[in-house]
Amino acid sequence: SAQLNELAQKAGKKYFGTATDSPELYSHATYFSILTDRKEFGQLTPANGQKWSYIEPQYNVFNYTEGEVVTNIARQNGQMLRCHNLVWHRQLPNWVMTTTSTWDKANMTAMLRQHVYNEASHWKGQCYAWDVVNEGLNKNGTYRDNSIFYQVLGEEYLKIAFEAAALADPSAKLYYNDYGIEAAGPKAEGAKRIVKLIKDAGLRIDGVGLQSHFTVGGTPSIDRQISNMQSFAELGVEVAITELDIRLNLLPPVTAANLAQQKRDYKTTVGACMQVEKCVGVTVWDFYDPSSWVPSVFPEQGAATLYFANFTKHPAYHGVVEAI
Ligand code: XIL
């Protein structure tokens, strides 16, 4: 039967992909064969290994081993890469998180530039896209002020990051990536402000990543998702769905009714991307319920992906097929 990446590419998209970070499953024949089947997933995202705490655990000590686990799988199987991420307020090593008194504008600018430049250089030419800055906004669209980078540098940190990434890897598309920007509202306006900030500084930003971590029944309508995507495209950037999952409330446990709603919600979201020319592709945030991040973060929620624990497909899988 038809497979997701194959269908998406035939329909004019660049890829349908998945995130993964399950080393314990890379020796599991079924998980690994789905993960590496280019007809199913034409693109991989390392869910954790390229984050700061792995890449630069000590100041000026760089280690790419963890990130390469997934980027090597992608290379060996002819899959595209979305690289994730260069700057985020979370999963930072302690040396970055030390009290702001350690940092002043000058030394933080230097260390930020070096981190972004070194990491993007390491994977130069291999990443279709880099999430340069991840989750830089509050819900109300103002800059996230619990980010140490914002605390020390203000909005300047975004320009520093995009500038260093562009210098290091001229061929990677440079993205701003966030959740809660999948439909019109103050946070989506904030993301547009970031696009303009970077462009007005004469720097390069190529895309906006819509994470799309949704809840069943709480997914924005297709019209709202489409018009939101178009409003980004009007600023001269592409968009992508970068971290799609749609979680169920597990109390009561999974029912046919909530699986049917999940199918509609996946179809809605993938369908929105299909209808917007500037939406280049869709990435799900893992495809297998047991390796999804959802249960560890959202109590009593789960079953958010396309495959059950026994590797049968959710109805949502067929919803995606219908959407493409
Ligand atoms: C998540 C990973 O999937 C988890 O394994 C980890 O413990 C926490 O981070 N938004 C993002 C991703 O941009 O990096 C997050 O990934 C999920 C939310």
Order of the strands making up the biggest sheet: 1-2-3-4-5-6-8-9
Spans of 5+ residues with little confidence (pLDDT < 50)? none
Mean pLDDT: 97
Rounded Rg: 19 Å
How many DSSP-defined strands?
10
Structural class assignment: alpha/beta
Identify the CATH class of the domain at 45-211: Alpha Beta
The tally of helices reads: 13
What is the annotated CATH architecture of the domain at 45-211? Alpha-Beta Barrel
- CATH topology name of the domain at 45-211, in short, is TIM Barrel
Estimated share of beta-strand residues: 15-25%
What descriptors fit this protein?
324 residues; TIM Barrel; 13 helices; 10 strands; eight-stranded parallel beta barrel; alpha/beta
Task: Describe this entry's structure for a reader.
There is one protein chain. This protein is α/β, with parallel strands linked by helices and 324 residues long. The protein has a domain at 45-211: TIM Barrel (Alpha-Beta Barrel). 40% of the residues lie in helices and 18% in strands. It has 13 helices and ten strands. The protein has an eight-stranded parallel beta barrel with strand order 1-2-3-4-5-6-8-9, surrounded by seven helices. Helix 2 links the parallel strand 1 and strand 2. Helix 6 (105-122) packs parallel to helix 8. The model has no long low-confidence stretch (mean pLDDT 97). It binds (3S,4R)-3-hydroxy-2-oxopiperidin-4-yl beta-D-xylopyranoside. (3S,4R)-3-hydroxy-2-oxopiperidin-4-yl beta-D-xylopyranoside binds next to loops. (3S,4R)-3-hydroxy-2-oxopiperidin-4-yl beta-D-xylopyranoside (XIL) binds at residues 21, 47-48, 134, 211, 243, 293.
